[in-house]
Amino acid sequence: MSDLVLIFSMDDLRGGITQKVLKRSGFEALLLRMILGAKDAIAKHAPGVVIFDISSYFSEEVNQILNLCGTLEHTPVILLGDRSITDRFEGTGIRLELVLSGPLDPELIVAKVKEVFSLKVEEKPSEGDTLEEDLKHFLKLD
Amino acid sequence: MEKHKNLIAIIGPKGGVGKSSICANLAIALSRLGKKVVAVDLDLGASNLHAIFGMRDSKYSLDDFVQNRVKKLSDIIVDTGLKNLGIIRGGDVPVIANMQYQKKMKLVRHLLGLDFDLVILDLAPGVSHNVVDFAIIAKKTLLVTTPEVPSLLNAYSFIKVAVFRRLSFFLKYKKCPEILELLERAKDFENYPHLKTMEGFFREAREINSEVTDSAKKTLSGITPFVVVNRVRTGKDANTGKVIQGLMQNYLGIKSSELMTIREDIAVEKAMARMKPIMTEAPSSPFCRDIEQIALRLCE
Ligand SMILES: Nc1ncnc2c1ncn2[C@@H]1O[C@H](COP(=O)(O)OP(=O)(O)OP(=O)(O)O)[C@@H](O)[C@H]1O
Ligand SMILES: [Mg+2]
What we know:
The complex is a heterodimer of chains A (142) and B (300). Chain A has 142 residues and is α/β, with parallel strands linked by helices.
């Protein structure tokens, strides 16, 4: 799993804003349009999060997204779209990190993406140093 | 003490760090991966595993086995209503902390004889020898902690007790009183600072008997706990596991290769209140996703 966010949107404006805000927050973000080939793109990029802006797709494409999500067991998925469409994902057992309906709220998306990524253990303990000192002290190892 | 291939021990020396919640839901996750699983509540006297599964009463509990009312442990396995998954309820008599040796061995024998792919043990908090022994014989031990200092300290101390107990068994078996004595001194390392690390202990022990020391060192390589940091909110929280792993490696010579994290998740309490396992109530919650990652890792 990489630190990349893959955004699928047919709406250049919505998709573009989401991508821009994510990039501004320091994430790598790639915007794709076609659902056809999405599976391969996800396999190729192994993104840390996938965002589907389902309000920008036709019904048939939403079905494809539904099927695709069923195969993404280990990739957190964020759905953007009206309740009437996102409801179709309920009860399917598909796991969604976040469902956002109503007007696009890039800040909320960023907050969620941050949350997903922040939980990955950092390579080098940074603030861990003081913790290590504390533990050693209590264990009388210093 | 050999390792037993289907035993998974869930330990967490600090009370309330999430052992039982993890045990129950991990058991479900593993059963969904096609394993035949039985979860066993060994926190006798304070058992609550069945409650996490939403069971109020059941015909049998471990009391029936321990007090010889049933012959076989397999007779008291209760159906959870979930495919591939049974549980053994804990009893109300707090016997495990000071169970007689004979009784304990009988329980171990029956646990090992259960016809399941995986037997997952929910153990009591604390560092009683019985809990430590299960951690030593299990094929995989999940050392559960939260990011909080007291819990981290307890986790370290638990592994330390396991290391000393393992070594002392081995040295008794090898009839090596001199090294045993050295081991006693190592416990009191404040007065013997050169024995502060296991490396220092082994260095001095080698001078007494290098052959025994080398094989003693090898027995420790069997202690490889998976560190599980539960109730993680931030990357910093997740990192606490690395710090513990570092201390275990540097001072106890214990290599824990796995570090896994489980997120803090309000859905855990909610499911508890509804008396339903979160794995069936909210399978897409962060807690369940993290548990599934652990299940996958355990199946590798
Ligand atoms: N990841 C989590 N997020 C939120 N709450 C949690 C999480 N894990 C556990 N809890 C809560 O912590 C409490 C203690 O959990 P649990 O009973 O599983 O701990 P335990 O280690 O088995 O305790 P004991 O040592 O008493 O046996 C429960 O109320 C549970 O709902
Ligand atoms: Mg418990």
